[in-house]
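Re: the request from the purification team.
They wanted to know what the chain is likely to look like in 3D before they choose a buffer screen. I agreed to run a prediction and write the result into the notebook, where they can find it.
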Amino acid sequence: MRRLGFVFLPATFVTLFAGSASPQELSSQPQPGAKVCVAIMANRTSKSLLEERLTARLTRSLVENKLAAITMDSATTNDRELHPTIENSGELKKRECDYLVLTHITDPRASPAQTRIPEISIGGKVPSVDAGDPLGGSSGPVHRDNLEVGFALFRTGHLKPVLDSTLLAQPTANVSDSLLPAMDRVANRINHELKKK
């Protein structure tokens, strides 16, 4: 006989998130025309980012990948681990979404205690050659550290993510603009996950 382990979560969270799934939705296979809700990105860095603009880019990239995607009013949690919030769960039910996308931007240097896979770097850090960089040009190149884009895809009614991953992006002088291609990469990974099988 197997023993089941339990994780204690607030009752309202479990009720809202699990209560929004019908038996048909509990299949791990994506349904044709599945609807994807994208929560507003969380900025866990000290840099100024345009979270709504980056979230809109992610949603637009998902739509361009032929997925039915909409941007939510609720935001991604600021916790280190990505998980749906009570607000996310309530909005998922209201908007009748099949999947939830959560994203956050973090600075890997800000969490040295967290175990990370070492970055591969040949010849040291790559300097910024951004022409708009106020410290570049005549004063020489500027070395910038990578930011980490964490993202997770949850199926409605499930607490375990279907996809939970990170990618690195090197910011330039305009950090938000330099992260736009990273949003396209996130959308491509989500699209691949939903369309495989």
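For the purification team: The radius of gyration is 19 Å.
Please add any questions underneath this entry.
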